[in-house]
Amino acid sequence: xxxxxxxxxxxxxxxxxxxxxxxxxxxxSVGDPAPKITVKEFxxxxxxxxxxxxxxxxxxxxxxxxxxxRTSIPHLTELQKKYKDRVTFVGVSVWETxxxxxxxxxxxxxxxxxxxxAMDVVPAGAKGSEGAMAKGWMTAAGENGIPTAFIVxxxxxxxxIGHPMTMDKPLEQVVAxxxxxxxxxxxxAKAKARQAKMMALQxxxxxxxxxxxxxxxxxxxDAAFADDPDLERSLGPLKFQTLLGQPSKQAEAxxxxxxLADTALKDNAGALNxxxxxxxxxxxxxxxxxxxxVALKAAQRADELAGxxxxxxxxxxxxxxFDSGDTAKALECQEKAVRLAKGxxxxxxxxxxxxLEMYRKAAxxxx
Length: 367
What we know:
Glutaredoxin, 2 domains, six-stranded mixed β-sheet, 14 helices
């Protein structure tokens, strides 16, 4: 089944060290000269080794095992099409557990991965995190999660660093010549400070998780909210799941779930979708019936924010309607989801098609 995780998974990964590498001191930031591209080989496209003045280049780091990386690949392809002959995109595979999988993966993607792709050069017997690109770019920039993209401006300096799904506006401004690197550098410094604060909080949560139990976890989270209310957007789902895991606090979990959908997550389509699917996923334990309206509300809001054009969100919304007994709406949403999934990584999702058939049969019976 296609996996869609509640956003607390990123936090749990931070607690356990999964899908990341250790934190490191930052020596590369916005405004610094871009390091050289030192790779083992280019498995797709014309090789790029340096940055010429006047050129704009996006260097994006990914891995075959990274689910979010696979999600961002089509977006990068669309950006390469949009900025053809104006921006060079290079995807660099790093932190691979099995480098032999890179070439077959890139070949299988075909035109869906429509930009240059290279493999990091890793010393014999070394870990993937010890590759030249991993160390010279990711570790040097203090980045310990992928996908991560770097925009190199016309001055051959780093103009922006961040998640490729949030790159559209910065890239547009870099191309237009309206990007403010000084302001970007200040914003990145603030972001890194927030990241350090979050890592300290993660340590407290890890301690509470192993020694204090659920009540101590919630106490740590509530204290964090009191210190910084904005943290509820990232930590709210963790508090919700912690409440949900306690049989005596189901009513409190329902109330807090409603609060999340109405406040902290209300303007984040992706987070709302993950939250809703967490409640609707048939592979999860059966939920309190009072949570179904919460899930449906979250999915409806996510679809509203996405303008009805996101197949993953429509798939979630259809499940919400189906579980609520509205088979007609479930079928309508799922048909649209499958139609919009064509040409995306979701096109091969057998579970989406299976749900479509299930909804068709149910709707036929109800006629």
